[in-house]
Automatic annotation (TrEMBL):
<dbReference type="Pfam" id="PF25133">
    <property type="entry name" value="TYW2_N_2"/>
</dbReference>
<keyword id="KW-0489">Methyltransferase</keyword>
<dbReference type="GO" id="GO:0002939">
    <property type="term" value="P:tRNA N1-guanine methylation"/>
</dbReference>
<keyword id="KW-0949">S-adenosyl-L-methionine</keyword>
<keyword id="KW-0808">Transferase</keyword>
<dbReference type="GO" id="GO:0052906">
    <property type="term" value="F:tRNA (guanine(37)-N1)-methyltransferase activity"/>
</dbReference>
<dbReference type="InterPro" id="IPR056743">
    <property type="entry name" value="TRM5-TYW2-like_MTfase"/>
</dbReference>
<dbReference type="GO" id="GO:0005759">
    <property type="term" value="C:mitochondrial matrix"/>
</dbReference>
<dbReference type="GO" id="GO:0005634">
    <property type="term" value="C:nucleus"/>
</dbReference>
<keyword id="KW-0819">tRNA processing</keyword>
<comment type="similarity">
    <text>Belongs to the TRM5 / TYW2 family.</text>
</comment>
<keyword id="KW-0539">Nucleus</keyword>
<comment type="similarity">
    <text>Belongs to the class I-like SAM-binding methyltransferase superfamily. TRM5/TYW2 family.</text>
</comment>
<keyword id="KW-0963">Cytoplasm</keyword>
<feature type="binding site">
    <location>
        <position position="186"/>
    </location>
    <ligand>
        <name>S-adenosyl-L-methionine</name>
    </ligand>
</feature>
<dbReference type="InterPro" id="IPR029063">
    <property type="entry name" value="SAM-dependent_MTases_sf"/>
</dbReference>
<dbReference type="InterPro" id="IPR030382">
    <property type="entry name" value="MeTrfase_TRM5/TYW2"/>
</dbReference>
Length: 371
């Protein structure tokens, strides 16, 4: 009997794995891998009453065990065990997201006293796919859009590999942005909107899920991010997917990036621009005012499609977002196609607005200061 001794936090529970276990108590004889929880007596009774089949008495403390046999992601099993372990009245955490080998919980305040217990159960019931369990400790607020994470169980590594649409992405969840829930939206752009002849400019590329996926299909991609670590991973991911020849990488503020792309004699005229920074992207649109004012006549012919993302809590989110776009561009844009990406919170939509940059905007007097 041995392997792992885990401090499960305020519940005061200790757990360890056993290779074989033969009970003499109510559960009868059993052998196989298990996790045994030593639970303080008051809590053990509570647990026992709700999970009356599996317990044994040892000295003055109670031991509760469950079988940790599952190899697959086994959320249902986690829920059953947590129902038995958590005090009555507490809502059982029923979901977690996975990013590679990392399970990412979003625990409510009421769960925090039991966070290590919850994480350990999720880990035990979802091995070997899950190796690390983390909780998001704060809303995403920083410029690099990274999550503040607390490692609760497992090996603690936040570096992982994600496979999306057959492509491989290395990600360090502690240092870069990643959201698997946007996979469908990325595929919508690549499959339904981009054409083989397109040249794509990804202004907020992160580690490259859209840029790399697009590069598989389109003629060329310019990808930029302000976060040097995201750019480092982007470059690795380009090599990993053998697409480095089709992507040029930049590490600068998105305004400077757009200004330098349009002021240089870049070989490929841009046809599609993606702005995935939903909190603020609309306010970057003024960078396109006058962008083609001084360029050669050839470039003037190519008015790119812009796909800009935003959030809205308004009753009419499309109208609300359109207004923001008009204000930032300095004129009203006709024919904006709106796509609801997903509900990110009750009443809060993430929206993608797609429109062709009006020539009047592209050759107008700029009203921003480029750095
Ligand atoms: C919401 S994430 C999207 C990343 C990527 N498109 C994806 O789907 O994974 C936004 C990205 O914009 C980057 N970013 C934030 N402010 C920026 C700026 N002013 N210029 C360029 N990149 C910026 C962040 O570092 C982050 O990687």
């Amino acid at each position: 009997m041995e392997t792992r001794l885990t401090d499960l936090g305020q519940l005061g529970v200790l757990s360890f794995s056993v290779g074989a276990w033969h009970t003499r108590g109510a559960a009868g004889s059993w052998s196989g891998p298990a996790v045994v929880y030593f639970v303080p007596e008051e809590q053990a009774w509570h647990v026992f009453l709700r999970m009356a089949t599996t317990f044994v008495c040892a000295g003055s403390s109670m031991m509760l065990y469950y079988i940790a046999e599952s190899a697959a992601v086994n959320l249902e099993a986690s829920v059953i065990v947590l129902e038995a372990l958590l005090p009555e009245g507490i809502i059982i955490p029923t979901g977690f997201e996975t990013v590679g080998h990392i399970a990412h919980l979003n625990l409510r305040d009421e769960h925090l006293p039991y966070k290590k217990l919850i994480a350990q159960v999720v880990l035990d019931k979802n091995k070997p796919k899950i190796q690390t369990v983390v909780n998001k400790t704060d809303a995403i607020q920083n410029d690099y859009r990274t999550m503040q994470l607390e490692v609760l169980a497992g090996n603690g590594s936040l570096r992982t590999m994600v496979i999306e649409s057959g492509l491989h992405f290395q990600v360090d969840l502690g240092a870069v942005y990643w959201n698997s829930r946007l996979a469908t939206e990325r595929q919508r752009l690549v499959n339904d909107i981009f054409r083989d002849s397109d040249v794509v400019c990804d202004m907020f590329s992160g580690v490259g899920p859209l840029a790399i996926s697009a590069a598989k299909k389109v003629k060329y991609v310019y990808a930029n991010d302000i976060n040097p670590t995201a750019v480092e991973y982007l470059e690795r991911n380009m090599v990993l997917n053998k697409l480095e020849r089709k992507i040029e990488v930049f590490n600068m503020d998105a305004r400077r990036f757009i200004s330098s792309i349009y002021s240089s004699q870049h070989v490929h005229p841009v046809t599609q621009i993606v702005m995935n920074l939903p909190n603020d992207a609309a306010e970057f649109l003024d960078v396109f005012r006058g962008i083609l004012r001084n360029s050669q006549s050839g470039l003037r012919c190519v008015m790119p499609m812009i796909h800009v993302y935003g959030f809205s809590k308004a009753e009419d989110p499309e109208h609300d977002f359109n207004e923001r776009i008009n204000v930032a561009l300095g004129e009203n844009v006709d024919s904006v196609e709106m796509h609801r990406v997903r509900l990110v919170a009750p009443g809060k939509w993430m929206i993608c607005a797609s429109f062709t940059l009006p020539e009047s905007v592209a050759i107008s007097q700029p009203n921003h200061i480029s750095s």
